[in-house]
Amino acid sequence: MRDHVIAVDVGTGSARAGVVSASGRLLSRREHPIHMRHDGDHVAEYSSEQIWSATALAVRDALSAAQLTADRIAAIAFDATCSLVLRSADGSPLQLNEDDGLVFDTIAWLDHRAVAEADDINGTGHALLAHSGEMLSPEMQMPKLLWLKRNRPDLWKKSGHFFDLSDFLTWKSTGSTARSLCTLTSKWNFAAHEQEGWSKSFLRSIGLEDLTSRGSLPAEGVLVGEPLGQLSETAAAALGLDAGIAVAPGMIDAYAGALGVLGASARSRETLRGQAALIGGTSSCLICFSPVPNFGRSLWGPFRDTVFAGQWLVEAGQSATGGLLNHLIRVHSAGGEPTTERHQQVIARIQELRATEGDGFAGQINILPDFHGNRSPFADPTLTGVISGLTLDSSFDGLCSIYWRACVAIALGLRQILDYMHNRDFHPQQLLVTGGHVKNPLLVELYGDVTGCDLLIPETDDAVLVGTAINAATAARLHPDLASAGSAMIAGGRTRPADPERRRHYDIDFARFVLMQKHRAELTAL
Question: In this structure, are residues 24 and 489 in contact, taking their beta carbons and an 8 Å threshold?
């Protein structure tokens, strides 16, 4: 009986696979690292073949750990970061670089090489940009593709396929070049709400009029929860699964996380509208849904049909959150490698210091957390971080002081985003928090206290895998639709009510936060 699915989540540093039952129980979870090649601060690349190999290992290990045979698996689904995979007409990798035997053909999501191209695209003022917060980020695919055409014309001439990473994984699984509406609408400026999704005038205005033919991009996409194709014999052999099972459309990882916490709310438009998914990892995404399109500068969207058919998705974000905390540990003399254990040591010591020193602990330190630019509300990838109030303290406690105030700054940035979204007719009263940040009690506390929102923390910290499993289970028709699958597969969680008094306590921090942003702008203007 085929009553389980495989969910694969390809994050920034690893490929993770889970075996999930039709009721949402995660039987096993296994992961394998993927290698990212860096060249300075702005260039980051992957090998798509190495990602596929890591995916296959993770799937095989997860299935073995679950002690299930392949005939119990009904479908597989993938989510991934919005990295750009480049392939030639015959399907072989287009080599950006080569290192240690790996061919790097994939521009990572966090790669910022295309800042100039993003600026040029934004300078066109095309009406379609209203659906991307009026400004494309260099993390999206059009700036990266324009960079490729301008700077590597040799590769552009050889190209035959351009894939979002999760679409690459479905292509490897099925041989089908069909694309997901989840990826197309949110990362490729595909207008699912228009009769023709690809805007010829937009592509012509940015110099990519040959994009769809050059990249084998289809005229329409596949809805999340619909079957995209069947697992091929070749892919089945690599993954240790049976050929012919359903393969669901790929998803952007954050949107899979949103499905994994909000899926059960999809039956009620009002319930869905009153909630927001906060997916925290290396960066953070705040995701809301609305039955009508709402626009705002720096907000990615509104995108229709990106997750739920007929619903408009809007995303705000912070470019460096978990990545910032890792960075602070790594660069501090008392830090070291930012392992999970090291983070927990820092967090435990912060709790001790707060218990001793009270609310004044490290209060002289103020931080702007834009170490990798600002996605919302400023939509400026060139913004930089600021730390005020440092001394010569190089001790472990000194590191803890900076770490704590960085956590406060991340939560203040979220409060600013929510205030901005409230002015654009988004009024979430509850944040459903998932991702790696759930393991950081400082951030969980601050997200509620600083924003004044009630929090719902899912029972599982694998909501991204759960969302991907919901996609797979619906595509296999283990459940009739995404809402039914969400109701059956999402286990619920614990609620943390907002404390209005604590929000008022952080008002002075927020006032300093805004003032520092003003001063940073003044310094930049000199």
Answer: yes
With vertex at residue 183, the alpha carbon angle to CA 180 and CA 187, rounded to the nearest 5 degrees, is: 150
Are 261 and 463 in contact by the 8 Å Cβ rule? The answer is yes
What does the pLDDT read at residue 268?
78
153 contacts 147 by C-beta, under 8 angstroms = no
Least confident of 80-94, 156-170, 391-405, 427-441: 427-441
SS3 434: strand
Q: Which residues contact 345 (CB under 8 A, 6 or more apart)?
A: none
Provide φ and ψ at 294, rounded to 5°: -120, 135
What is the dotted CATH code of the domain comprising 322-408+503-525? 1.20.58.2240
Instruction: Name the pTM for this structure.
Output: 0.90
Q: Quick check: 103 pLDDT over 80?
A: yes
Round to whole Å and give the CA distance between 128 and 120: 14
- CA–CA distance, 170 with 524 (Å, rounded to integer): 45
Q: Measured on CA atoms in the order 365, 371, 374, 376, is the torsion positive or negative?
A: negative
Architecture of domain 4-249: 2-Layer Sandwich (3.30)
Position 100 confidence tier, pLDDT thresholds 50, 70, 90: confident
Under the banding of pLDDT at 50, 70 and 90, the label for residue 440 is very high
Tokens representing 480? 């009739």
pLDDT mean over 69-74: 97
**Sign of dihedral through CA atoms 321, 322, 326, 329?**
positive
Please give the mean pLDDT across all residues of the chain: 95
Whole-number Å distance between alpha carbons of 419 and 503: 13
- Characterize 459-470 residue by residue with b for buried, 16 or more Cβ atoms within 10 angstroms of its Cβ, and e for exposed: ebebbbbbbbbb
Domain limits of the chain?
4-249, 322-408+503-525
Mean pLDDT of 331-356: 97
Q: Return the SS3 of 319.
A: coil
Q: Which pLDDT belongs to residue 450?
A: 96
Coil, strand or helix: which one is 136? coil
- Cβ partners under 8 Å of residue 187, min gap 6: 82, 140, 141, 164, 252
